[in-house]
Each structure stands twice: as C-alpha cells, then as structure tokens.
Amino acid sequence: MNSYIKPGDNPLLTEERKKCQFSTDILAAFYHENAQKIKRRHEIYQYYLENKELHDPEPTEFMDRYHRLENAERKVSLLKKHVKKAGSPLGLHYTMMIPTILNNADDEQKAEWLPKAQNLEFIGTYAQTELGHGTNLRFLETTATYDPKTQEFILNSPTTSAAKWWPGNLGKSSNRIIVVARLISNGKDYGPHSFFVPIRDPITHKSLPGVTVGDIGPKFGIPTVDNGFLLLNNVRIPRRNMFMKNAKLNPDGTYISPKHAKLAYGTMVYVRAVMIRTMSHMLGLASTISIRYSAIRKQGEIEAGKGEVKVLEYQTQQYRLLPQVARAWAFEFAGRYTRKLYAQFLGGDVDVLPALHGVSSGLKAVVTHQTAQGIEQCRMACGGHGYSEASGLPQLFATAVAGCTYEGENMVMLLQSARQLVKIASDVRKNQKPTKQNPVTDYLYKTSAATKCKIDQTTDPDPSSVIEAFEHVARRLTFAAFDKLEQLKQRGISAENAWVQCGVDLRRAATAHTRTFIARQFSNGILEMRDLPVQAVLKDLLQLYLFYEVLECDGDLLYDGYVIGQQIEYSKNNVYEALRRLRPNAVSIVDSFDFNDRELNSVLGRRDGNVYENMLEWAKSSPLNKHDVMPFHHKYLGKMMEDARQQSKL
Amino acid sequence: MNSYIKPGDNPLLTEERKKCQFSTDILAAFYHENAQKIKRRHEIYQYYLENKELHDPEPTEFMDRYHRLENAERKVSLLKKHVKKAGSPLGLHYTMMIPTILNNADDEQKAEWLPKAQNLEFIGTYAQTELGHGTNLRFLETTATYDPKTQEFILNSPTTSAAKWWPGNLGKSSNRIIVVARLISNGKDYGPHSFFVPIRDPITHKSLPGVTVGDIGPKFGIPTVDNGFLLLNNVRIPRRNMFMKNAKLNPDGTYISPKHAKLAYGTMVYVRAVMIRTMSHMLGLASTISIRYSAIRKQGEIEAGKGEVKVLEYQTQQYRLLPQVARAWAFEFAGRYTRKLYAQFLGGDVDVLPALHGVSSGLKAVVTHQTAQGIEQCRMACGGHGYSEASGLPQLFATAVAGCTYEGENMVMLLQSARQLVKIASDVRKNQKPTKQNPVTDYLYKTSAATKCKIDQTTDPDPSSVIEAFEHVARRLTFAAFDKLEQLKQRGISAENAWVQCGVDLRRAATAHTRTFIARQFSNGILEMRDLPVQAVLKDLLQLYLFYEVLECDGDLLYDGYVIGQQIEYSKNNVYEALRRLRPNAVSIVDSFDFNDRELNSVLGRRDGNVYENMLEWAKSSPLNKHDVMPFHHKYLGKMMEDARQQSKL
After folding, report:
1. Predicted ipTM of the assembly
2. Mean pLDDT score of chain B
3. What biological process terms from GO does the record include (chains A, B) (predicted)?
C-alpha cells in the first residue's frame, strides 16, 4: 500500500515500505488537501525531470551568491513561461507588491500599476523595515515631504539608521518598489504611509540619482535572495505615487484620513496563515530526510552478535523524530482552520475576525519556534552527516528559523496574543460574558471547569481529556498573569510598566493558549478522514502529539494538583505506546508527505535511500576538489614544511 | 570601575558602563583564571592590531571556501613565527596528531615522528570516523592487512561506506595522517588500531598512488576547515608504522595484546574538559554581542511620549539573555573542576578516575546542547540583525552546535553517563556502600534525604536548598529508570532490549545528574572570589542560574510533591529578582569576559557600540555590491521585463 517503492531502491527502505499498514496515496491526498493536487504535483515534478534546463548546473550549495542569483534569474525566466508565480527573485513581487496594489491603491492607481505588475513590466518589493526600526513602525525615520509647488513628494533617509534594510529582492532585482515613509505635509507629520517609488532605470537598471541601493550581504540562510538596503536622498515622486485607497493627500497638501484604520489587518493574518503551512512543509521535509536516513543507517548492535540495527530502532531516536512528524500534521490542521476562517472573512463574515485575531499572532510564534527546533532535532538525529550541506538540513533550518523573526518577532507576537487573553480575563473577573461565540477563546470563560484531570491508564485515551488539561493550564496562567498585573497596578506601578514586569508570565500564558488551539484543530481535523487504516495512523500521531505536549508542560499541569505524578507516568506510557505503534509505518508516513527529491534537496533523504555512494559523489564534485593540490599550497604550508625540513638538516 | 570605556563610544554603552558596581578587571581575571592571562590577552590583541598582515583582507564572511582556506594558510604561516599552536589548518595536527604520537607511539617511533611533527616537517590529522560508522568504532571497515613477506600493512577501504569521512584538515592540508583500521594478521581480525600513513608526497603534495583524498564539501559551519574524505586502495606502509606503545605486531605477524586496555581514556576526558571551556567562551561571546546590542538598540516606548527604550529594559529580553551569561559562568566552573581532576589524575592520583568518568560524558552533552541553544536565543534576541552574518552569531551557532555531535554524539553520551547511574542504583538497592568517596555521585547513595524542598520566600536563598532539590530529582529519575529496567527484565525482556526501551528515561536521569554537578561546581566555584562587589555579582548570576534551572525542571520537582506550586512561585520571583539586580551591571559583566573585537567578529557586538554605521559599511563592501547592475541582469530579468513591455505595447 506504499506507492513509493521502486526497483533499485536501498533494500532497507523497501523493507520498511513493505511493512506499510495503510494507503500512502490516501494519506498524501489528505495532507495536500485532495488527490487532484497530488496528481498536479507529480505532473510538475515529471516536467521538471524531463526538462534539464530547469535543473541546477551543479548543487547550489557549491555556488557563491553571485552564481546562485544568476542561476535563480535564469530559472525564473524559463519558468515564467510555464507557471504563474515563480519564486525568488520574484518572491516579494508576488507576495507583497501585487497584494499591496490590490489592497491599497485606489482605482485609478490600480488601473495604472496592476497590469504592469502582473505582466512583469517591472519587478518590485516592499520596503518597510529600517536599519534602526523593525518591530515598532511608529518610529520609522524615512520621510516623504510633500512639496505643493511641484506636487511631488521628496523622499529622504535622514539618518544612517533610516536606511531601509532587509526587504527581499531589493538589493539587485527590483526597479519599482513600495516605500513606507512618514508623510509630512504643510509641516505636519502624519506617520507612516506607503509610496510607489522607482529606484532603478527601467532600461539600464542603473540605480537612479539620489538612490543608494545594494545587497545587505550574507545571512544565516536564504543565500539566493538579494535582501537589500536603500538610502534615499531628495528623491522626488509625483503626488499620485502615494497609495491612496485609504488615506489621501490633496494637491494643496490637505490630508484626508482613512475611513477604516485597520483595513490592512486581514492581509497580515493571511500571510501568517500561509506561513503556518510553509512551516508544516519544512518540518515535513526535515522529518522525511531524517526518518528515511534513520532507516538505512545502521549503528550499534542491540544484542551482541546479532548485527547492527537501524538507528530508527532506538527509542531515543524515535522520541526525537516522530514528534516532529506529528507536529507537521498538527500545524497543517491549525493552518487549514485559520485559512478557512480567513476565507469566511473574505466572504464577508466579519464575525470571525476576533477568532482570527485571537490565534494568528500566537500561532505564528509557536509554530515557527517548534518548526525550527524540530528541524534541528532532525538534523542532529542524523549525526555527523546532518551537519553536511549534503543533508539539506542546515539550509532548511536556517531558512525556517528566519520565520521566528520576520512577520512579527515571536516574543512580540506572544505578547500581542497575551493582550487579548488579559482583556478576556478582565471581562471574566467582571462577570461579563462574551458578546459573540469565539471557538478559539470561549474556554477562557468557563469558570466551573473540572479541577482534576481525567487522564488515566488507558492507552486509547479520548483527546478531549488532554485538550481540557491544556485549557486548564492556559486558563490558570492567563488569570495568574492578569492578577499579577492588577496587583502591580494597585501598588502604584503604571499599567505599561506592570506589563513589562509581567512579560515572561504573559508569554507563557500565550504559549499555553496557542497549545489548546493547535491540539483542538488536530483533534477535529482528523475526523474528516474516513479511511480506517489512515485514520488509525492519524490517531497515533495525534496521541503522540498530545502526550508529548503533556510532558512538555508537566510542571504547569502538576503545579496546582490538576494532574498527579501517576498521570504523568500514564502520559509517558502513551508517548512510548504511540512510538511503538508508529514505528512500522514511520517511513510510509513520511513518504506520504509526498516531497520529491527536488524539494527534499538532500542526499540523506533521497527516495531511493542510496545514500553513501551519493554522498561520495556529491563531495567529490564540490569546488575545492577541482584541485588535488591547492594552487596556494607551495606558497604557504608547503613552504613552511620545506623550511622546517631544511632547518632540521642543519 | 569598568575599564572598557573609551572616548568615541556609543553614549548608550558608556551610560551602561558608568553604572558598573564592581571592578571589571577583577571579574575578567577570575574568568580567565588570573590577571597575568588578561595581560597576555591584551598584549596579543595589541600585537594583532599593530600588524596589519595578520588581518583578514576583507571580512571572511565574504570569502568562498577557496579564499578562506588560502587566507587561513597565509595567516598560519605568519603566526607560526610568533605563537606556538596556530589554528586551522593546523588544528588537528596539534590536538590529535601530536597527542597521539605522545600517547600511543613507542619510544623509537616517538623519537622518529615527534620532532618532525613538532617542527611541522609534516602536517597531520586523525582519521577514524567513516562514511558508514561514527559512534560505533567496533564496526569500522577500513582494513590494515599484514603481509609478513614484505613486513608491510596493506590498507584498504573495502566499501564506499568505509571511506574515512570528516577528519578536519584531511581534505587538502595534511600529508601524514593517523588512520584507524582493523588490524588483520595471519587471517585473524584484531579490531581497530592506529597507523601512521603518508597520503601525499612530501615535496609535490600530490596524493600518493592508491590514495583518493578530498574535501567533503560545504557544511553548516566551520567553512574554513577542509574536513576530508579518504579512500585507500592497497596502500602499503611498513610494519613499524603501526602505533606500538600498547598493542604490538611482531615481524612474523604475531599479535601482542596491550597490557592496559583503557589507557587512552584519559585523553578523551581531557578533550571533553577542554570542550567545556570552549563552550563557555562561545556562550560568553554570544552573550557579549547580544547584551551590548540590546543596550544600544532602542525599540518601542514603554510609556507613551517618554521616548523609545533600550530593548534590554524588557523583562522578556533579560529572561532570554542573562541566563546565558549565568550558564557561561556555570560551564567555566564545571570545566575548571574537571580539568583539576584531570591534573590530579595526570599527577598519579588514579582515585579520581571514577569521578572524572562519572561526569565527562553527561557534561559534554548538556553543555554543548545548552550552549548551542543559548547562542540561538542570543541570536534571535537581536531580531533581524542577528540573522545577518554581520552579527557573527549565525557562524558562532553553527560552529558551537557541531559540538553536540563530535567527540561523542550527545544522546550516546547521556546514555553512557546513565550506565554509571544505573550501576550505582543497583549497588544501593543491594545496600552496597561506595568503595571510595566520589564527590560527583555520592549523593545518589543518600537514602534518607529530605522529601520536602527547603525553597522558601527568601530572595537571598542558600544555594544548597536548590542543589539538594536537583539531587532529589536526579536520584528519583535514576531509581525510576533502574526499577523500570528491572521490571522489564523480570518480564523476560533481555537486558539489552530493556535498555533500549528505557532510553528516554535514562537520558532524563543523566541530564538531571549533570545538572547537580554543574550547580555544585558553580556554587563552590564562586567561594574563591574574595572581592565583595564581584562576589555579589557572581552570587546574582548563581541565583539566576539555579532558579532558572528550577523552572526548567519544575515538572520533575512537583511530580512527587517534593516541591509545591508556591515554591515554584518563589523560584520565579527569585529569577525576576536576579534579573533586576543584574540589569545595571549587565554590560559590565559581559565586558568582563574580555573578548576583543577580533574574537567577537561581530558588527553588533563591537566594544564601541557604533553599530549602525558599521552595518552599512559592512553591507556596502559585500561582494554582490561590486556591481550596481548584475552583469547577467539584461540576459534574464531585464529581458523578461523588456519582453513584457513590448508585449503590452502590441
């Protein structure tokens, strides 16, 4: 029932795949939402395999950034003919430039800019973050000062720290960009607004007068992206280059405030919901690589003389890897639910906004953090080879972990999520009921919940007993943080300072709240699967997810006697039991993520499991091996040894 | 009392340094063991500053591996004139080649090889790990088959997975190396032994016939090191190239067993003790970078209209960073104690071996793990800029995290540590007393320890109450794992399989045991400091360390009622209280690690705090910025946009 078996595969992997107790096709279709999508995925991969010009001329790990960028531009210009949204260096054009035109340009502007953007007559990005300001947009320094005489804005970076910094594809690729700058008109500062700014000549691509633009240099990951910096010195743009769907500026410089202040909010939620899915995929990729490798890597005998065993047989290895698979699924369900809410919102149902709001910030923080941590566990579980770029894991980690910082730094996100929790706690203390149903936060209003946990010795527990336990923790931490805030305020500390002094407690409450959300979505999500063997696998993954999380927050559960030590033992047993059940299906479960070798980009994670010969092949072709003797050898080390030998002969 | 203030510094850092309540000179001397060492450190740095040829021609982050290697060889050949042990590409020569000759060559061999090695007439490394085998040396595949006719060994890599893989400086730099291979004589396999093997011509440096050697390609970190692979095909070496201090082979092929099987053990312990200090330094570097940056980075107003505050004012930021400073100190004390035991052992006191053994494996695992995690916290706490290579933090992390895998994979290390714990548990159950005093493990024999924790509301607690709590947890987890092992065996499961089924529980016990060790060494270590203001700072760090750890293992403490919820609250308060006390000294404490700008290699962590202008400078000089317009632009993106414009005109 595993569709990924082929002749010529490493027999150790085939052996695993033959043990499969479910249909990988059904599970794969469920992960990618339907069988149609799987079909399409396979078609695209087949097309890629057949068209060698889409392949990298050598592994990208061997390229410097110049050649990576060149290779990416080459592939994008080929792919443009076939796919709608090609990746870098067009990534930000599609995820930020076009959506901003759609959401923030008025009709006339849209008519002017949108077709050109869609046709790729220009390439753009979105420049908001500055060298000195990321999180706190209110203090951005770039200015757009209106000159009513010429009806132009004059853009300036008044200080070094005002330099735009980080926007993807800003350094080299983009020629028309969105700049967020403080609008100043008639001597008044109206705060940050968006402007459409040409920065390079459309024909020569040279940077325009007054524009200093460049690449910000190498980063932890994403080496192919030309994240850029930008300094503006008296750059003039027409009045109508200010995005005017919401706020407007008349020719005489009169400012007209936007009618709805928080209209842009929906997009932010959407971007985060998309991120959740990306994170699930990244964790799925890392799990696939590490579990396949753990099934072909043998190390150590368990019983003397019986031969070495696959490292996947070790409980410690299973405990490192299988929870990552479970989390990849948990995040997929959490993201799916968030996207569903967003679709309802787009369809006009504004009532879902509180639920969306209630979850998007905390979810972003928890999921990016656990994904990055999980990939690192996968990487380390591959031993030394996980440290090689050949494994694909270092780059996967470095890319994923960036998500902890961009689109809202995680600590800030958790504190944002905590704001809503504290607001609810305050309502509850005042005996106020929720004005609307909100499936994400309603549990916080339950004042008569059980004070003893229902987890017992059964190895087929009801998920609700665990979810209720998570709710208990989130509720307790929320009210504890709220009470501490109130106490501090009663002692005369300002609300703002009290907030800072409760930062760590608030963060913990938000994390606990997010846990309840993910667990609930996972538990609900698998109910849609009707195929019994696949359902059984998902149940095992859910069980692993839930009890692994119980152990992660054991202190919070034991704190007030809600859980007793014996129940922690039951929880451990349920983790071990889930690992035992999942073991025979482990390879087939990760196969069902349906990531192909191009996506995996890993010698360790290859579908065919032929790792060692390909590791050697990969290493041999790496750039330093163009020389047996490095050309500089005789100048330095060679001379040093020669001198020493001469010396010793004296 | 902060000696690191200079004119021209960022006033935000000077402001911090002026708040200093202790002597940074005294604290620095304590961290680096004495004032003499600090003086020497400053002399070396001064020499470096004055000798421009020792500087990198551009930041190494901008170099590809070819130029990194060239630059390293250039610097090493200059440094050789001044310092005794230069780094890469001579790193493994000094840490593995020379010590192996010292410990494993017989007198005649030593007389032959040692002077040449010390004079650098050849450059060597140590090739043990293979593509298919790392942890389990018994199954290494490389063979050294003795041919009595010619009195030579014939070395072979019988399979692809037998390729030597990973040795540092093997790929390009070394010409004489140590190869670990299975000794086969007269048809009998005597298992792994060490051989001295020429792999490159001493004059031309070309790889010798039968030798395939190369670089293994790019890795997560350590890009400058030429980690290598090696395949041997009927390479012949003289009989006397086998290291013969312990085992020997007569000319007729008769094998003589070593007298003392575990003689090499001491070196392994020593290498790990050195690693502990390296980890402390790395965490110290990351703390210095992130705390200095947090003192010059302003973001967000706490109280509206009062201006933005340093991010170091946020409790969440302090909670991320200051525990890393405390751990850097904790690891330094733990490493110091281990080195002291090792020195006693070298001095002939074999009684310390059990204590050494008892701690080195678990300590290696816990310290490398917490260091890597801590550096990542520091990196993320620097927001977007922490993600730039300009911060130095990505490379620091990628280098440190390798320590989780080399010199004994961490999971294997913890299980090794658990073996000793289980052995002791078995003795205790049989009412056997320890044969010798062992300060590291004696607490496990205490059968009548208190069952209630002494932590109370005092904000100046006695460390012993916390250390006893850690002991309680370690004891409980050790005996629980032991009892589970026994139960499984009683159910008829083999001892080996029972061990695998208890893997996760055993790992937890070993981690808890290591915690007691580190806490005890930290607590004892600061007693040597007599200067009261410095002592006060160290006490605050110890308090932070201890109660942060309490919160890390809160579940284990609450599990059996040893601790109650209220005591967790006291512990939290003690963490917050320690953060509050440490805050004014934070910059001065990291200054006292005395890492200079060359060691920090970080634009964010510069002593002078002039970050933003130097970030821009760094970015501008990065290689992609040699071109305003990339030379390939018109071929790809330029053409794509031009085509689109033509199309839209039709």
Report:
1. 0.96
2. 95
3. fatty acid beta-oxidation using acyl-CoA oxidase; lipid homeostasis
